[in-house]
Design a protein that fits this description.
2 domains, 6-stranded antiparallel sheet, 365 residues, alpha+beta
């Protein structure tokens, strides 16, 4: 029991540390990508941190199995280097007993991964989709930033606003639009605002005290018009209630109720992550065995490569299920079975080698 508590504590603490480092790396990448969208005005700054927060369950769903796999390699590798495993082996602990002791913390990690995979990750994906939909549904005027040239209307209109007040009043507004037959229209106004006709759900850009210049550049054919008020219709945005969520954002019950190829692939993926923890544990225990002369990191590269291949094959099989190129009944189970056999072979390699050499010796005799 003392040995079990010691191993479990070391594995869980190391797993937590490794997972925290990996999460920081992946969050930094996500943050930089969404930060670029915020800088371009496609995403509100206040929505940025909410999106990062709601993406964390999905990242943890992927990171926790890897973190636990690496923790086994690190902790047991250190114990082999420092001859702790030699002492335990001399006390009668076999590799099978070590694996059984490792299964308890592995089960805790698998339960946590299942919690993320089946509930928190879909919930986070759903909330992320809603936030992104709300950002897409903002009028393009709401996404404009002061002091920057920005394109709206799918790039057909270029705008510049010198200042935006706290009440969202636009000041010193410049709007340029390319028309047909090489003609252009430029509007300059002192102030502007967005108005909403609630009964029709229609939005308008209203500019005040300005001039409109219309004509073909390079010619004298220009029309200059002064105005007190100038308006432009803004196309209505779709309601967020009409949003069709991706399969990743659907609840597990919804996936079971509608067994389409996409939903079957998503359901198998949610099952795959907790199951992967156990198969990765079976792989990691024998791969952590290290000769003190080789160093504790000698076997980490091949072990990580096997894990990467495992995850890559799962992703590839999942993609083929969604495209109808792989029978869902086989699906990811075929990948799990393949790597389970690989793990069992590595785990029992010493016995297999002994049988092989015994058979070979008997044949020569």
């Amino acid at each position: 029991m003392i040995i079990f508590r010691y191993l479990s504590r070391e594995l869980l603490i190391t797993s937590l540390a490794v997972s925290a480092i990996l999460l920081t790396i992946f969050l930094s990448q996500s943050f930089s990508r969404f930060l670029d969208d915020a800088a371009q005005g496609r995403l509100a700054v206040d929505a940025l941190f909410s999106i990062i927060l709601f993406r964390m369950p999905h990242l943890l769903e992927l990171i926790l199995p890897l973190g636990f796999f690496l923790s086994i390699l690190l902790v047991y590798g250190r114990m082999y280097i420092e001859s702790e495993m030699v002492v335990l082996s001399a006390c009668g602990m076999s590799q099978s007993q070590l694996f059984r002791m490792t299964l308890m913390p592995a089960t805790l990690v698998a339960i946590l991964v299942a919690l993320f995979s089946f509930w928190l990750s879909p919930l986070g994906a759903s909330m992320t989709e809603r936030i992104l939909a709300e950002q897409r549904n903002r009028s393009e005027i709401e996404s404009l930033q002061q002091g920057r040239f920005q394109a709206i209307a799918q790039g057909r209109v270029m705008t510049y606003i010198e200042d935006i007040s706290d009440a969202n009043e636009l000041k010193k507004v410049f709007v340029a639009q390319q028309g047909g037959e090489g003609k252009s229209a430029v509007v300059i106004a002192e102030t502007g605002e967005q108005k909403l006709k609630e009964e029709f759900g229609q939005r308008y850009l209203i500019l005040h005290q300005g001039f409109s210049y219309e004509g073909q550049p390079g010619t004298s054919d220009f029309t200059i018009t002064g105005f007190n008020e100038w308006g432009r219709y803004l196309p209505p945005a779709p309601s967020i209630a009409d949003l069709e969520f991706e399969s990743d954002a659907r609840t597990t019950i919804e996936l079971l109720a509608n067994p389409s190829l996409e939903n079957q692939a998503a359901l198998q993926w949610r099952i795959a992550m907790p199951l992967m923890v156990f198969i990765a544990t079976l792989l990691a225990v024998p791969l952590s065995k290290t000769n003190p002369r080789q160093g504790r990191y000698f076997k980490m590269l091949p072990a990580i490569l096997i894990y990467v291949f495992y995850l890559t094959f799962l992703l590839n099989a999942n993609s083929k299920i969604m495209k109808g190129q792989l029978d869902p009944d086989l699906g990811l189970w075929l990948v799990h079975l393949t790597f389970l056999l690989i793990a069992l072979t590595i785990f029992n390699w010493q016995k297999i080698s002994s049988i092989f050499y015994f058979t070979r010796g008997a044949a020569h005799a």
